[in-house]
Prior knowledge:
- By secondary structure, the protein is α/β, with parallel strands linked by helices.
- The protein is about 50% helix and about 10% strand.
- Helix 2 (about 55-60) links the parallel strand 2 (about 30-35) and strand 3.
Amino acid sequence: MTAARASLLCLMGPTASGKSAAAMALAQHLPIEIVSVDSALVYRGMDIGTAKPGDAERAAVPHHLIDLIDPAETYSAARFVADADAAIAGIRARGRVPVLVGGTMLYFKALREGLDDMPAGDLAIRADIEREAAADGWAAMHRQLAEVDPRTAARLAPLDSQRISRALEVWRSSGQTLASLQRGAASRAFDARSFVSIALEPSDRVELHSRIATRFDAMLAAGLIDEVTRLHARDDLHERMPSMRCVGYRQAWDLLEGRIDHATMRERAIAATRQLAKRQITWLRSTPDRIVIDSLADDAIEQVVQIALDSGTPISGR
């Protein structure tokens, strides 16, 4: 079986759905290596707030695409695809099974469907856009985007600063609209039909919310504020960077800046995590041919293992 046609086992789900535990259980039955599909786990020094696998887990099962870059650097879906391709090829060459685990649905989509030919980021242009937004507001930047790229502006909220900024950056750096560049995806090395996508989705949103709150409180107890304090003390980091916009880190940064108190920080972080989970579930529902498992079921992990074993996932890419 060629690399283009060998099955790729994907374990997907919203935050706090038990993906990591299921992957570790799967390692008891198959010679797997885990490829992280998480845009936050790539940052070094951001361990507690990202629920990064610990030393024991990484010693038991090899993990890839974790601790790749410094928080001052940026990471992209294009780089993820390149890194994931290389990791998958290496795992298969060792005669082992790659298992893609995470909740960054854009990365799963990019790996499966391909990427458009987007221009590279331009930090100088991005800084100009941020200065304009600071002076005029993001609603004004949204109106500016509507004049040059009405299709993209129509699907973005007027205060969606990150996406508005990127769309304006693409226009100013290339003279092309984001909408026009997104029309055709590049060909992929993997046949989309080869993906075995297992989705851990909660049947009870209230219970998921309870688990999210419990997990965030555990992060606080483990020293999340101390972790963010060390990052906050660095001269090369600021709150607009993608790393510092991660859920939990953004709210802790506001606490350290004195904008909010501890109780408000906790409340906002939990609310933001709930919103993230909602977006992840929406993405999941658009994933074709996914196999849904109730993440709250008592036997959810056993179901994941059985589906993986029944999928005929090859031990190598031969």
